[in-house]
Amino acid sequence: LDTGNRPSAFAHIRAGVSAEGKLTAFDGQSWGTGGAGAGSNFPLPYLYQFPNRKRVHTDVYINAGQQRAMRAPGHPQGCFLTEILMDELADRVKIDPVEFRIRNAPPIAPNAQWIKYFQEGARRFGWEKRHPTGDPTPGPIKTGMGVSAHLWGGAGRGSTAHVDINPDGSVVVKCGTQDLGTGTRTIVTIVAAETLGVPMNAITTEIGDTQYPFSGGSGGSTTAASVSPAIRVTCTDALDQLFAKVAPTVGVQADDLVAEGGRIRGATDASKSLAWKDACKLLGTEPISVDGKWQDGLSGAGTSSVQFSEVTVDIETGIVRIKRILAMQDCGLIVDRLTAESQVYGGVIAAINFALYEDRLLDRVTGQMVNPNMEFYLLAGMSDVPQIDVVLNNMPERGVIGIGEPPTVSTASAIANAVRNATGATIRSLPLHPHKVLAAIEQQRAGGTD
Fold first, then answer.
1. In this predicted model, what pLDDT tens digit does every residue of 104-147 receive, in sequence order?
2. CA-CA distances (angstroms) from residue 110 to 352, 398, 408?
3. All residues at 6 or more sequence positions from 140 whose CB lies less than 8 Å from its CB, including other chains
4. Which of 449, 407, 447 is nearest to 428 (CA)?
5. What does CATH list as the number for 160-293?
6. Cα(102)–Cα(86) distance, rounded to whole angstroms?
């Protein structure tokens, strides 16, 4: 397709694990292509702690369209290769897959909450009802559960902003960022309104114009972490100037004033106050105009997440149906829960598509895509999207961290591991089309693979 594609990833992996369920070694040989002259660039091994590791990687260049920065570049590939391995190793040492991951996850830290999420997620999801690999229930419909984890950066910096507080009480916030449907306009408005203590409808947010103060592009889940601090700092500076104008009238020192509920009042004596609009009238004909920029301390970096999935597999047709998905995710300070949850929903649904449906087919000679249409390039329909439960961990002490990309990373791995739990067959490639599922089941019946 004209918009490019996610790079491919292929690997031969050998791994060691002790009888106590601790990873000991990783030896991987990997290949991947980003098309004509572009690398594949995926991390391997992913997330878990292998004390001894070796990887030899080869980029393969082909006469096909170049890769693009699809959501969470490189991470779904590295996650899938590692997480399939983790389930196989867990079975080898006869340890529950969640417990096995807990034993090998990085220590708990603000940006490393996997152990907590494995434990809480298992409880919420009903993991104790999971059966060992291979559903023994009679009949063609088999049920299975899977789990997977991921990480992401999400840091941002460098944005600038401009705020005008006008004598009529209106507020205009300008920033050269953009909203691609992720809710940037909403969080700009929320941060400004909360800082100034006025309702959101009092804020006019102007973004998406190169004439506005500089902000970065939308990528790497950096926008929220870059923009929110800039808006907060600039609004705070503007509010301090308004306090200086109001202080003589209300008889309170400027540094003892607060703005909330559409009023400016004394922090220790609430009776000394002015309505926001009355306070702004004191500006006369001169609005307050302030330029500001991102400052350290209001945003953070590093997110962690765990996802669980439950599926049914028809072992006669190879069709996989997802019953439900649970996503445990953090993103630092949650500015707007609705849009943050929406990002998780979108990421999970995108991953469902490349886990079960999407498949770019190329002509082996010309490199041209042979299914560039909505008839043969498959996407999930409404009935294919399962129940998705999102649990966000609000961590205000960490500041704002982006959430646009991480939720799409581990969904496919959790689904594939659930299919393995249902059928007893390991499927080591995506998408999980019926013919692949049936082939894996037949291979398992014939003796499986090492």
1. 999 999 999 999 999 999 999 999 999 999 999 999 999 999 99
2. 28, 8, 21
3. 314, 315, 316, 317
4. 449
5. 3.30.365.10
6. 11
